[in-house]
């Protein structure tokens, strides 16, 4: 089994701390170094020193996905150590340093019927940290199924999208260990983020369909320990998978129930019914959750969307 050390790195985000992982087998590898704050730099440095290494000795930086709580310090560790940064190619454009989260999604947000004043609230509630940046020249891109050799073992790269289009997990097959990033978390159902499809940006990414397929995929695997992107490690991950599947089933039923009661509704109206008290950026996350379930329901023929004056209205498929 490859030696995995968890370093709990503080973040300024509501999610709480993020887990960075140090693998003390050559090449020395650091997964998801954390957000770009002074406090995170300090904690990361101390965590690495505690395992008898220096950040300058890191030989590989791996990112599970582009979110700044995981990726913010990748470039810094690269600059200290010269280590290349490994990630999925879909995540690279989001690490350009000027990626605009809201404008990238604006057509879908408008289509969902989000009023302008709510868009303004989401836009105003922006990340105070610098936008994550990784210099493209230092990047090595990884695809599903690739093997990453270590002294004494290897990792298989798993592309498990849904929370982010290029989300990766790393699997030590011999040790039965999975580093799951935000794909599988002990107490949170990861948000199936509303995004353009990286292969066809005019289309919405089928985030939840992809995510549910990923859950089936890891359910069929034989994993003895999961090290997640937030929280404690999990010895028995199957109940977490089952709870997540259950959550998505219930959410689908809840949305079809609301549509049956109310006739037609937009994704935004539905998100307001499910989450009446959301503030700022959380309005976007609530919308994301609803839109992802509507997309799954539509692909299964349970609801139908119809565009009127640029806004999509959903109704249950049985209704005229
Ligand atoms: Zn994330
Ligand atoms: Zn996260």
TrEMBL record:
Superkingdom assignment: Bacteria
Domain Metallo-beta-lactamase: 17-230
Pfam families: Lactamase_B
InterPro entries: Metallo-B-lactamas (IPR001279), RibonucZ/Hydroxyglut_hydro (IPR036866), Sec-metab_biosynth-thioest (IPR050662), WH-like_DNA-bd_sf (IPR036388)
Name of this chain's protein: Metallo-beta-lactamase domain-containing protein
Source organism per UniProt: Desulfotomaculum copahuensis
